[in-house]
Write a structure and sequence with these properties.
Blueprint (H helix, E strand, L loop, with lengths): L28 H6 L36 H6 L2 H22 L1 H33 L4 H54 L8 H44 L3 H29 L1 H14 L2 H9 L3 H53 L5 H47 L15 E9 L9 E9 L2 E6 L6 H8 L7 E6 L2 E2 L5 H6 L1 E4 L10 H6 L3 H7 L5 H7 L1 H6 L21 H15 L3 E5 L7 H14 L4 E5 L11 E6 L2 E6 L1 H5 L4 H11 L23
Parallel strand pairs: 3-8, 3-9, 6-7, 7-8
Antiparallel strand pairs: 1-2, 1-4, 4-5, 9-10
The chain binds adenosine-5'-triphosphate (ATP).
Pfam family, one: ABC_tran
Keywords: ATP-binding, Membrane, Nucleotide-binding, Transmembrane, Transmembrane helix
Membrane topology: Multi-pass membrane protein
């Protein structure tokens, strides 16, 4: 079973409850440590501080089915289903291994087959040796007679040991290769699918399952190899028994049926239990992830959430313990029945051997070999059965991976031969409509805007009015459901998406804090440039955006790691990071710059400098500015006012202030915040006329 999906153990004690029922404090933590790592968690039965299922809802409360996704699979999981799916399971693992390492696979199969043959030869040699040892005559003669066969037994043993070493080497080569093939495919698709796919919660949810399912590929191949190996060993043991006496083979099969039944039932019990608990397992996983995540650390402490979360986790973990006990009891019952019946059946096999010996039909030496062959055959069968069960389980996990990769491949934008204009003069959106997946309300409703080179255009409007969505459409990240986006008259729907993105420099609202050096954090704006122009090429972009002041204070300048979560990494303040994000977009040096709330975390001086820069860049580029700091859009050449997915007004600052409307209201409201007293004269003129609304 994949450990990453395994229910997690009870957490180590990280704090202890205070005696009067308060929350654990930092001061309490060492006391818990002193109790040792197995000290009881803060929660004990009867002192849970909240409703245990508060966080993710109750068992019967799963409207989206997100937590119970696998229950249907569980209903379909029967021995017959497993047998029916066996061929596709083996086919899949074969093709996976083939793709990862052809030569290794051929070598592994050959090694297994040869090893099986050697095992059969070894067993027959045992028969020869026993025949020599048990025959009539003086002991030295008998030993001499048995020597060649004994030598063969030893040689077979040595060869098998050598082959098993080769096999384990081959297996250790396989595992990482299969992991690589699966994970690289997942990452490739995840970074090439349309960004719109990530707005679909189902897609993102399935991606999480696929990430965990990717590891199932490696295990599936491992299980398939085990099944194959056991099959070869069973054939070897069966072949030897068939040679010794034809009656022994069906008897062996009979003797292993009860064990096989018990193994299959036990594994199925464990598997169905796992599936029925998948919801709790996901909850445990989420809780553990959040409780140890750096981003959540401050909030957990400042809201005093530790006890609350720990209670939830502990309850789930206890539930898991109880379930494991139930499964353990069930498995013990199956084993008891299976092994009792198998013992009787084995007694019958050995009884038959004795009868054959008594009747003089089988020599003693052959009977001795038969005992060994029976033992080997039974061992191989039990391995085959448990590997088959594991294989089926991993097949299901891997199924998550496969279905996601197929879906992701469908969502990769089609590549086209036509390119977007290299340095567009006019970008125009006509009647654009866009609705996010699984939402009822359109984010944009028939929007028309025009942006020109040499101008700074601003989008303003209240939260959720559609500004960022429209910016993403302009940047070619989203395709509108209706309407067109044209660059110099060329419809973006007909051009290669990468060519559009290549011409856009974006300062997104939420930028990425790459765990890399400061230099790379800027250079990711256009990675090819760093290689072509050298490490100092980032300096002008940093200087233009004030990122150079940030870098100057870092211990190793541009080479300082900004991966705070790792040793020696250096973290930046929000505003310092924002300067780096701006430098990244400037470094991209694209003809179309989109700045979406670029100054939210900047101090007043840095903000002013950034808007001056945006004005300068706007002289020979198309610049789109989205901001709630309305003082900064006063100088924009054109301002579009958005509201509920519509363009409700447009013009220059003076135009928009000359009439009542959203812009006038928002600007006035903000300007008032800078006036010292409520009685002070309004800093903005009252509008003279009724609003004229554009669409
Ligand atoms: N990924 C998404 N999935 C579903 N709905 C979304 C998504 N992103 C935005 N929306 C919705 O689309 C509408 C427009 O959002 P958008 O982000 O474009 O607004 P905005 O004007 O940029 O807001 P803000 O000023 O707060 O940044 C909102 O109603 C929002 O809830």
């Amino acid at each position: 079973m994949d450990n990453s999906r395994e229910p997690l153990d009870t957490p180590d004690a990280a704090g202890v409850p205070d005696p009067v029922g308060g929350l654990p404090t930092q001061r309490d933590a060492p006391a818990a440590e002193a109790d040792g790592i197995l000290a009881e968690t803060p929660t004990t039965a009867g002192e849970v501080s909240h409703d245990p299922l508060l966080i993710y809802g109750r068992e019967d409360d799963d409207p989206t089915g997100a937590w119970t996704k696998h229950n249907k699979t569980m209903e379909r999981t029967g021995v017959r289903t497993m047998a029916r799916r066996l061929p596709s399971l083996l086919r899949l693992s074969w093709s996976l291994a083939w793709e990862a390492d052809r030569a290794g696979l051929i070598a592994l199969v050959s090694v297994r087959v040869v090893s099986g043959l050697v095992e059969a030869v070894g067993l027959l040699a045992v028969a020869g040796a026993l025949t020599g040892l048990l025959r009539e005559g003086p002991t030295p003669d008998r030993v001499r007679a048995a020597l060649p066969a004994l030598a063969l037994v030893v040689a077979a043993g040595v060869v098998r040991t050598g082959l098993s070493l080769v096999e384990s080497l081959l297996r250790s080569r396989f595992g990482p290769r299969i992991d690589r093939v699966c994970v690289v495919r997942l990452l490739d698709l995840a970074t090439r699918t349309s960004v719109m796919a990530f707005d679909d919660p189902r897609f993102v949810d399935d991606l999480e399952a696929a990430e965990r399912g990717a590891a199932g590929g490696r295990q599936l191949v491992d299980n398939a190899v085990d099944v194959f190996t056991s099959a070869v060993r069973m054939v070897a043991a069966g072949g030897v028994l068939g040679v010794l006496h034809p009656l022994l083979l069906p008897l062996l099969v009979l003797s292993i049926v009860p064990d096989g039944w018990a193994t299959a039932r036990s594994a199925r019990l464990a598997y169905t239990s796992w599936l029925s608990r998948i919801r709790q397992i996901r909850r445990q996983y989420m809780l553990r992830y959040r409780m140890t995540d750096r981003d959540c650390a401050a909030e957990i402490r400042s809201f005093g959430l530790s006890r609350f979360l720990l209670d939830e986790y502990t309850l789930l973990a206890r539930d898991y313990e109880a379930e494991q006990l139930r499964v353990g009891r069930g498995q013990a019952r199956y084993r008891l029945i299976g092994e009792s019946v198998a013992g009787l059946a084995l007694g019958a096999v050995y009884g038959t051997l004795v009868l054959l010996l008594n009747a003089g039909v089988m020599p003693l030496a052959a009977a001795g070999t038969a005992v060994l062959a029976i033992r080997n055959g039974r061992g191989a069968l039990s391995t085959a059965l448990s590997s088959l069960n594991d294989a089926y389980e991993n097949f299901l996990y891997f199924g998550e991976y496969r279905s996601w990769t197929q879906e992701a491949a469908r969502r990769i934008p089609e590549s086209r031969s036509a390119s977007a204009p290299v340095n567009p003069t006019v970008i125009r959106v006509d009647g654009a409509t866009y609705t996010y997946p699984h939402t009822d309300t359109a984010a944009l409703r028939g929007v028309t805007v025009e942006l020109r080179r040499g101008q700074v255009v601003a989008f303003v409007g209240v939260n959720g009015s559609g500004k960022s969505t429209l910016a993403k459409i302009l940047a070619g990240l989203y395709l509108p459901d209706a309407g067109t986006v044209r660059w110099d008259g060329v419809d973006l729907a007909g051009v290669e998406p990468d060519s559009v993105r290549d011409r856009v420099g974006l300062i997104p609202q939420s930028y990425t804090r790459w765990p890399m050096s400061a230099r790379l954090n800027i250079a990711v704006g256009r990675v090819g440039r760093l290689a072509a122009e050298g490490p100092d090429s980032v300096i002008p972009a940093a200087a233009a955006t004030g990122a150079d002041e940030v870098v100057d204070k870092l211990p190793h300048g541009y080479d300082t790691s900004l991966a705070r979560q790792y040793n020696s990494g250096h973290d930046l303040s929000g505003g310092q990071w924002q300067r780096i994000a701006c430098a990244r977009a400037v470094y991209r040096d694209a003809p179309f710059l989109i700045a979406d709330e670029p100054s939210a975390a900047l101090d007043a001086r840095a903000e002013q400098a950034l808007f001056d820069l945006i004005q300068r860049l706007g002289r020979d580029r198309i610049v789109l500015l989205i901001t709630h700091r309305l003082a900064s859009v006063r100088t924009a050449d054109r301002i579009y006012v958005l509201d509920e997915g519509l363009v409700v007004d447009q013009g220059t600052h003076a135009d928009l202030m000359s009439r009542p409307g959203i812009y006038h209201d928002l600007f006035t409201l903000q300007a008032r915040q800078f006036v010292d007293t409520p009685d002070a004269p309004s800093p903005v003129p009252e509008p003279p006329a009724e609003p004229s609304r554009t669409h």
